[in-house]
Q: What sequence folds into this?
């Protein structure tokens, strides 16, 4: 038997929790599905120093706990686990968690985007200890340090260029012999005296002393030979993947999979479905911008429900 809800929020993190806070304060009694990683990517981030209101910084998991607690205080209910299927073709919308069906008058999608990683064990071991997927978030911690960026597209070049503000040297590691980035971005990187290149190379292992990164073992894509590169940090520049698989064919998205919204609102291509956070943001991917979009989505949902809720259930 279906459980009826006025507003379902799919996904946690700054966007989902902020949307829940605003929706709960508007007496919408939201039900939030936290996913398999409650709190999102910030739960694997150590120090967060660029979120307003915390002059001494705050740990990522602690920030997420505070956000969740604030939303819970005003009546948000939480379901641990991920949504496995949705049907947004007609109202009420249908949302499944395994075999349990929920029907919702409105839905906010805040499933985020996942950084692409190399998939080696040592990379995971040193996440938050020198391995990062966000230059804007963590670049400040690498002042005067030699670091590396993996990738060859615009993302990698943008990350590397940004990191030269802090690092003494940035080495771009690319599996091919030429950048895939746009010409203007590639030219800018080659002209930067603080950027070096390792061509036809992949990261075979992240080296460290248990407390932080001390270097990388690099492997040639030409002859398979290996050598070590001394660096104090490694940044992923191979892009992000929006968590939108269950919405394909139901919500409009760009060629990469980010949801399309009717900016400056959070309205998606389906009336009554709204998007917040990194799932609809290929550009900024910051906790503060995600939280702001969560606020927007909740306000949009509240207004939409005020106009349409009665007719849905008649």
A:
């Amino acid at each position: 038997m279906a459980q009826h809800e006025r507003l379902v929020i799919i996904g946690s993190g700054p966007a989902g929790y902020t949307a829940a806070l605003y929706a709960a304060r508007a007496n919408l009694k939201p039900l939030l599905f936290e996913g398999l990683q409650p709190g999102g990517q910030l739960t694997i981030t150590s120090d967060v120093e660029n979120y307003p209101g915390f002059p001494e910084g705050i740990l990522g998991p602690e920030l997420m706990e505070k956000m969740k607690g604030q939303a819970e205080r005003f009546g948000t209910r939480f379901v641990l686990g991920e949504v496995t299927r949705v049907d947004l073709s007609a109202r009420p919308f249908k949302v499944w968690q395994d075999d349990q069906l929920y029907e919702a008058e409105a839905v906010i999608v805040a499933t985020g985007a996942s950084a692409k990683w190399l998939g080696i064990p040592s990379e995971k071991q040193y996440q938050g200890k020198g391995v990062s997927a966000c230059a804007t978030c963590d670049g400040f911690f690498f002042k005067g340090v030699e670091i590396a960026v993996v990738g060859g597209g615009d993302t990698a070049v943008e990350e590397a260029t940004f990191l030269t503000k802090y690092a003494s040297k940035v080495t771009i590691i690319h599996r091919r012999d030429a950048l895939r980035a746009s010409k203007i971005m590639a030219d800018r990187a080659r002209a930067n005296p603080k950027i070096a290149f390792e061509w036809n190379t992949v990261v075979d292992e992240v080296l460290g002393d248990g407390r932080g990164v001390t270097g990388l073992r690099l492997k040639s894509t030409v002859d398979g030979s290996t050598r070590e590169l001394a660096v104090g940090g490694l940044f992923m520049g191979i892009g992000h993947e929006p968590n939108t698989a269950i919405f394909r064919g139901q919500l409009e998205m760009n060629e990469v999979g980010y949801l399309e919204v009717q900016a400056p609102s959070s309205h998606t291509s389906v009336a009554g479905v709204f998007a917040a956070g990194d799932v609809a943001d290929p550009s900024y991917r910051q906790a503060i911008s995600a939280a702001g979009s969560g606020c927007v989505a909740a306000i949009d949902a509240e207004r939409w429900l005020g106009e349409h809720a009665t007719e849905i259930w008649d």
Remarks:
- Residues 300 and 306 are 10 Å apart (CA to CA).
- The mean pLDDT is 93.
- The chain has seven helices and 19 strands.
- The longest helix spans residues 287-313.
